[in-house]
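Customer escalation, tier 2.

The customer says the design service returned an amino acid string that "doesn't look like it belongs to this structure." They asked us to rerun it and document both sides in this ticket. The original structure tokens are below, unchanged.
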């Protein structure tokens, strides 16, 4: 967004809106409109800044959400894979040695 001279009007970022410059330009244009006439069109740069900041916020929230999901994926997937590999390794070691590797007690065994 640019003022009547073609200079950009700063509206703030997606996290913090700052329409002070836009309000100042609106006041200047209103004064010029009253003093000179129809040459100076009344503007509403402050409302345009509010809309622009709202659009930037939606974009910032989307980028932050995608970044958070990516960071969680990068951090959690290796942990979950390691846990699964450990479980599989533990299961294979039990099946290789058998479930009961100790001596057999003849009084409590199911052979009776």
């Amino acid at each position: 967004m640019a003022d009547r001279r073609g200079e950009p009007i700063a509206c703030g970022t997606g996290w913090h809106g700052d329409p002070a410059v836009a309000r100042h330009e609106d006041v200047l244009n209103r004064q010029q409109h009253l003093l000179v006439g129809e040459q100076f069109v009344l503007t509403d740069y402050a409302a345009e800044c509010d809309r622009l900041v709202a659009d930037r916020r939606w974009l910032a929230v989307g980028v932050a959400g995608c970044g958070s999901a990516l960071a969680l994926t990068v951090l959690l997937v290796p942990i979950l894979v390691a846990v699964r590999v450990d479980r599989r390794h533990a299961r294979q070691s039990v099946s290789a040695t058998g479930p009961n590797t100790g001596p057999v007690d003849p009084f409590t065994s199911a052979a009776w």
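Tier 2 assessment: The sequence is consistent with the input. Residues 45-97 form the longest helix (53 residues). Residues 20-97 form one domain. Sent an explanation to the customer and offered a walkthrough call.
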